[in-house]
Design a protein that fits this description.
- By secondary structure, the chain is α/β, with parallel strands linked by helices.
- Helices cover 47% and strands 13% of the residues.
- It contains 26 helices and 18 strands.
- The strands form 3 sheets. A 7-stranded parallel β-sheet has the order 3-4-2-5-10-1-11, sandwiched between helices. Strands 14-15-13-16-17-12-18 form a 7-stranded parallel β-sheet, with helices on both faces.
- β14 (561-564), α22 (571-580) and β15 form a beta-alpha-beta unit.
- The longest helix has 36 residues, at 116-151.
């Protein structure tokens, strides 16, 4: 490849592009992304599966970073995409030498299985011990030199020798105390041994975190700390979403890179998931158990601030118990299991019930004053716990419950009434005691408060996905200002795909139990399985619906092996068994893990059927999101569109994208619900056909349920897909 984008023949060349020819539209996408990066503009890139989105973003980003001394950080929340990033990065290293690091959190790389805070403390005590030993060696060398000076009659050497030996004695006593402290032998090896061989090995190829862990484990080193040390100034980092979406982690992460935010280019894959991921990172919770532990912690504290902390935390604890107890309806308590069970405590015209109960119960010098005292005390206790662990007085690093509780109460009172913050209570059953305990939660409805700060501070961001449109919604939801937008559909032959909108009755929740409707759907699915020359993927709005039709079709002589996915199923194991065969059907939920980020190539899945419109489960959280969007974007019907309709269609489009993954691939995609057909134009906002991009819905072919098999027969016959004679209609 040529070494520059500017070439004498006027064409763009990309030194980081590892293959001879790009996919259709890929060169154009790279050029447009390069221009946007030069202008420090964000990019929204929608590209159909298998169209080279990763390299379309990565190649110009690396080129721009090399020219401007920046680092590219590419991130995903899908494991398979992480593996693809590694493969692409390795391919790039064959054409252009780059230093790339694949980074995971400490939890997946620790050799002694301690949490993050404990690791920090171990690291600090280990470093202190190593530094003191190094200082001792320096003092011994100094003492030996002074002793030689004394023997030679050097003036003042005796006094200097005495001062150095006194300092050495004191330091030796201090180090003896350190021997009983908590240290990490793996990290000590990092500090005391030559690790040059590790870094030569690390940058000789693109190493995965598993590679790093195995190398470090063999050598008795700490791979996590070595990886952090090796990140400074690298060209490319591959990581998970949370390294960028969590503000505290992001600050540390950029520090490890040795980069200011404006010197980082971020690339988000599967970017339609950024909204929900940012929401999860911003949501804060506090359990009744943490409050109780904080109150117990305060009983033994001899500090004038303890009374204030106990006063405010006791009132919040009792208010939480009173609130969830009062919110449980008759007979509802018995329904609560080991998963969190949400209870409604919000009010449309005033603060939530928990806050009102807290204010009613609280008696003191002022909530803000006493919360501040509790925070101060919590910070002092936390520092004390750290010192105890450093000195080896405790075998694990204690977490300060008072600090956690006080920080949450402060946030609850300061932000609980703000737009986009929804106060909630939940309860769950303790598996050991069978008793209920509660949780307060400040649920973040509008994620732009998290993402906008990130996108504003870095040099530029490329967000890519097969389902980012409509772009105006993505811009609003994530807080993007005037991004460059581009969309590239399937560039593969249209004759290789057929999309059928099957006119089965609309599967509203109230209609799903109708026996006649179930019979129509089951009969249609039976035809779909019979006329698919290969495997079939069947997606449903829930695991319960997947199980319903799995049971209806099982044992009815469909001639196909049936697989059922579920929340308690090892999905990856089921997927591997499914694709190992060539005539199976997998029944799963659109809200599970198989609807995106997983490729089903060729006969792995010749047909995909989406049964129903997978609206998210109606809940208080969903209603809170809709209300927040309506208030944030008045006049746009944003609550329904941003919070329900667009995420639902994205889920459907992701599922449809599981088939037809290459130019030679072919398959049929079915949408089983009247709301996908032309008739949906008379169904108001529940008709979803118009929510698909124009070029996609123009390919929809409306068929009656009993006619779907003929459409499939004709399509697969045209592609000579049947082994032997085709099925008889």
């Amino acid at each position: 490849m040529a070494a520059s984008r500017d070439s004498s023949d006027g064409r763009d060349h990309w030194r980081f592009f590892p293959y001879d020819e790009p996919y259709p539209n890929q060169a154009e996408a790279m050029s447009r992304i390069a221009e946007a990066l030069d202008e420090e503009r964000n990019v929204l890139l929608e590209g159909a599966p298998g169209t080279g989105k990763t390299l379309s973003a990565l190649v110009p980003a690396l080129e721009h970073a090399r020219e401007t001394d920046k680092t590219v950080v590419i991130t995903t929340n899908v494991h398979q995409q992480m593996r693809q990033f590694v493969a692409d990065a390795r391919a790039i290293t064959r054409t252009e030498p780059i230093r790339a690091v694949v980074f995971k959190g400490k939890a997946s790389m620790c050799h002694i299985d301690v949490d993050y805070r404990e690791c920090q403390t171990l690291r600090d005590t280990t470093r202190d011990l190593v530094e003191k030993r190094e200082e001792m060696e320096e003092l011994r060398d100094r003492a030996d030199t002074l002793l030689d000076d004394m023997r030679e009659g050097g003036q003042g050497a005796g006094d200097a020798y005495q001062a150095v030996t006194d300092e050495l004695d004191a330091l030796e006593s201090e180090v003896e105390g350190f021997e009983s402290t908590n240290v990490c032998d793996h990290y000590r090896a990092n500090l005391t041994r030559d690790t040059g061989a590790f870094f030569s090995w690390l940058f000789d190829d693109v190493r995965t975190p598993e590679d790093v862990y195995d190398y470090a484990d063999r050598e008795g080193l700490c791979g996590y700390e070595l990886l952090k040390e090796g990140m400074e100034g690298v060209d490319l980092v591959v990581c998970n979403y949370h390294h960028l979406l969590d503000p505290l982690i992001r600050e540390q992460f950029f520090r490890w890179l040795g980069r200011e935010p404006e010197d980082v280019i971020t690339v988000f894959d599967e970017a339609h998931n950024v909204e929900s991921a940012a929401r999860d990172h911003a949501t804060r919770t506090l359990t009744e158990n943490t409050l109780a532990s904080a109150l117990t912690e305060l009983e033994d504290v001899d500090d004038s601030r303890a009374a204030a902390a106990e006063n405010v935390l006791r009132a919040f604890h009792d208010a939480l118990c009173e609130t969830y107890d009062g919110a449980l309806a008759f007979g509802e308590r018995e329904q609560v299991g080991e998963n969190w069970y949400d209870l409604s405590v919000s009010n449309p015209d005033r603060r939530d019930d928990l806050t009102l109960s807290f204010l009613d119960r609280y008696e003191g010098r002022g909530i803000s004053t006493e919360v501040e005292l509790a925070l101060q005390l919590g910070e002092s206790l936390d520092e004390e716990y750290e010192e105890q662990y450093k000195r080896g007085e405790t075998t694990s690093r204690k977490e300060c419950q008072t600090l956690q509780a006080a920080a949450f109460v402060a946030t609850w009172m300061d932000e609980g009434g703000e737009l986009g913050q929804h106060p909630m209570c939940s309860v769950r059953r303790d598996s050991g005691t069978d008793e209920l305990y509660g949780r307060a939660e400040l649920y973040t409805c509008i994620p732009r408060e998290v993402t906008k700060e990130l996108f504003d501070e870095v040099s530029a961001t490329v967000l890519m996905s097969a389902t980012l449109r409509p772009f105006d919604v993505t811009q609003d939801v994530l807080g993007l200002d005037d991004p460059e937008t581009m969309a590239y559909g399937l560039a593969y032959p249209e004759a290789n795909r057929r999309t059928l909108a099957v006119d089965v009755p609309p599967l509203f929740s109230s209609e799903r139990s109708n026996p006649e409707t179930q019979a129509v759907v089951a009969d249609t699915l039976r035809d779909v399985l019979r006329f698919t020359p290969g495997n079939t993927l069947c997606f449903f709005p829930s695991y319960a619906e997947a199980e319903r039709y799995y049971e209806r079709l099982r044992g009815t002589g469909v001639g196909t092996d049936l697989w059922l996915d579920g929340s308690d199923v090892d999905t990856e194991a089921a997927r591997k068994e499914f694709v190992a065969g060539d005539d199976g059907a997998l029944f799963t939920s659109l809200w599970g893990t198989l609807s995106e980020g997983v490729s089903f190539d060729a006969d792995d899945a010749r047909t995909v059927a989406v049964v129903g419109v997978p609206y998210p489960h109606l809940s208080e959280r969903m209603e809170a999101v809709q209300d927040a969007y309506d208030r944030a974007y008045p006049g746009k019907e944003a609550g329904w569109r941003y919070g329900v309709e667009i995420p639902t269609i994205r889920k459907t489009r992701q599922a449809l994208g599981r088939v037809i993954r290459s130019p030679d691939d072919f398959g049929v995609r079915l949408l089983l619900d009247r709301r996908y057909t032309r008739e949906s134009r008379d169904m108001g906002r529940y008709g979803v056909r118009g929510s698909f991009p124009t070029e996609e819905r123009t390919e929809f072919v409306d068929v009656a349920p009993e006619k779907a098999k003929f459409a499939m027969l004709n399509f697969f016959t045209d592609h000579d897909a049947y082994a032997g004679d085709p099925p008889r209609p």
